[in-house]
Amino acid sequence: MADGDKVAGRTFAPSAEMTAGAHVDKARYDEMYAASVNDPEAFWAEEGKRLDWIEPYTKVKNTSFEFGNVSIKWYEDGTLNVAANCIDRHLETRADQTAIIFEPDEPDGEVQHISYRELHEKVCRFANVLLSQGIMRGDRVIIYLPMIPEAAYAMLACARIGAIHSVVFAGFSPDALANRINDCGAKAVITADTAPRGGKRTALKSNTDAALLHCSDKVRCLVVKHTGDQTTWIDGRDVDVKAMMETVAPDCPARPMNAEDPLFILYTSGSTGKPKGVVHSSGGYLVYAAMTQQYTFDYHDGDVFWCGADVGWVTGHTYILYGPLANGATTLMFEGVPTYPDASRFWQIIEKHKVTQFYTAPTAIRALMGQGTDFPARCDLSSLKVLGTVGEPINPEAWAWYDKNIGKGQLPIVDTWWQTETGGHMITPLPGATPTKPGSATLPFFGVQPVVLEAESGKVVEGNPAEGVLAIADSWPGQMRTVWGDHERFESTYFQQYKGYYFSGDGCRRDEDGYYWITGRVDDVINVSGHRMGTAEVESALVAHSKVAEAAVVGYPHEVKGQGIYAYVTLMNGVEPSDELRRELEGWVRTEIGPIAKPDLIQWAPGLPKTRSGKIMRRILRKIAENDYGSLGDTSTLADPSVVDDLVDNRMNRG
Ligand code: ATP
Ligand code: MG
């Protein structure tokens, strides 16, 4: 029996020890949750106090989901500064505590422990550099940096002076960068000379030079000399940030901002279409980031928190930077990748820095799982208390591996469902409170009111079990406020189809216990001979086979069945594709799920097209399966565009 089968369908209760020390146990969760939805005003008025306000708010919630009239405001008459909340207010008690642990790409590179005091000075100096370049409140600044402390300084420096940052993954192409610079009308780009990652270097500065050819010549280019690699230099436009930081004042006042002033714009990963410029607020966002970081991971003083995401992803914004720092936490920032120099890198970092909470994506777990169990077995992981995942439903096989090899069968795994748009966790277990079921994101976070709607009619499905699309009935403080420069797109994307609700775009099931199971994006549901099926289920079955490392399933037009099942399969290291294996996999899915789920076509895929946040771009796979290569859509957010060419070639070869 596959390990996944042994855990699927089971419930894992938090240990007594976990519950005893936790901020929230089951009774407290029930009580707080009820309070949060029965009287949101009072609940969030109280939670807002976790921040320091310059001008305290008197209004808490002012929100409307009415299509044509959507408006979301929280704490709207309060003023605060986000950077001051993440740094200054901790100086009295934590000046010498490490705020950020920086772990470089090379295991023998220089680790940095940046204290709150040092963070304060660096951020002030960085802010003064921005001011010296004429960057003012409300201006947009693109941050195109690797995972280095300067990325954190840059983000917080923007927050300090009221500029709006937009972080672009360091892995993105010049085109993707130029699109974002132009879309938000950025006044400056902050970049680095080159970025080491997994032993390779990305030429960020020359990418930026290439991007800026397509932008206004007024855009300033601020360069962090990180590796010292040679780059071109344009006098009058390019600024040496580190050199300049030495010359400016070490202090910079934190500017009072309105709670509703935008803190950042972040473009979605583009799994489903052209990336949207998601706008987040200062006050509500930070309240929500801080609160979810504390409760979802049961963070306590003295813990070492590690979110392994990239800062270019919302997960990095909320759970590397803003949430932990608002809580005065110690947060770890890792420049490299999980498999360099080998697949023990993550586990060694946990051992080295005595990480207590570790948060990653199922795709990373599956990649590491493919490398066997020796790598984690060699490391001391005993500091860990809580494990987390985000990004897609975690298949039972990956859950079982994570639980057994990393959690040693002892630790809670929080499977957190949320989106760039939501700012923070929406449906998630709390470590001391929620019994978990592998593959389920379980129950709503405080203040979140999920509803299951019938896909066609939009009617609310009452009672359990229920199945349909996932929507949210009322606002929460971390919610996005608009799409940058396109409020209409905001309304039409999220509020038009199901009136009165925020529509997530995801399908879901709610079981007898009221637990939510995300079944994937609504676009990814396939209809085979009248049976609706989530592609995630078929993928999960394929991945449960010992020879399969990854799988992606899409529908394609099928003369008889309406839609057929097309599976892209990446095999484990060292396994050779063969017709025999193809038949074996077909038979495997047949027995795991049923004859209806048997793939009609299996294509061997050496790699799958993924976004930089590790998500499979199924819309591209759909096009390839449909033999429609002319309109692959926006591919600018792919981690490795060459993967697509390979898949297209193989598809064409088989006719
Ligand atoms: P775009 O909106 O541009 O298509 P995206 O949706 O991939 O991009 P994100 O905001 O990074 O961009 O991802 C959010 C989506 O990820 C969710 O809507 C959901 O489909 C999926 N997701 C995230 N966490 C989970 C989880 N724990 N379980 C299931 N699905 C998840
Ligand atoms: Mg999305």
TrEMBL record:
Coiled coil feature spans: none
NCBIfam families per the UniProt record, alphabetical: Ac_CoA_lig_AcsA (TIGR02188), PRK00174.1 (NF001208)
Top-level class of the enzyme under EC nomenclature: ligase
Binding site for ATP: 391-393, 415-420, 506, 521, 532
Protein name stated in the entry: Acetyl-coenzyme A synthetase
InterPro entries per record: Ac_CoA_lig (IPR011904), ACAS_N (IPR032387), AMP-bd_C (IPR025110), AMP-bd_C_sf (IPR045851), AMP-binding_CS (IPR020845), AMP-dep_synth/lig_dom (IPR000873), ANL_N_sf (IPR042099)
Gene Ontology MF terms: acetate-CoA ligase activity; AMP binding; ATP binding; metal ion binding
UniProt modification remark: Acetylated. Deacetylation by the SIR2-homolog deacetylase activates the enzyme.
GO cellular component: cytosol
PANTHER family: ACETYL-COENZYME A SYNTHETASE, ACETYL-COENZYME A SYNTHETASE 1
Organism: Pseudoroseicyclus tamaricis
Family: Belongs to the ATP-dependent AMP-binding enzyme family.
Obligatory cofactor(s): Mg(2+)
Domain Acetyl-coenzyme A synthetase N-terminal: 29-86
Catalytic activity line of the entry: acetate + ATP + CoA = acetyl-CoA + AMP + diphosphate
Segments forming domain AMP-binding enzyme C-terminal: 537-615
Residues engaged in binding Mg(2+): 543, 545, 548
Keywords on record: Acetylation, ATP-binding, Ligase, Magnesium, Metal-binding, Nucleotide-binding
Role, per record: Catalyzes the conversion of acetate into acetyl-CoA (AcCoA), an essential intermediate at the junction of anabolic and catabolic pathways. AcsA undergoes a two-step reaction. In the first half reaction, AcsA combines acetate with ATP to form acetyl-adenylate (AcAMP) intermediate. In the second half reaction, it can then transfer the acetyl group from AcAMP to the sulfhydryl group of CoA, forming the product AcCoA.
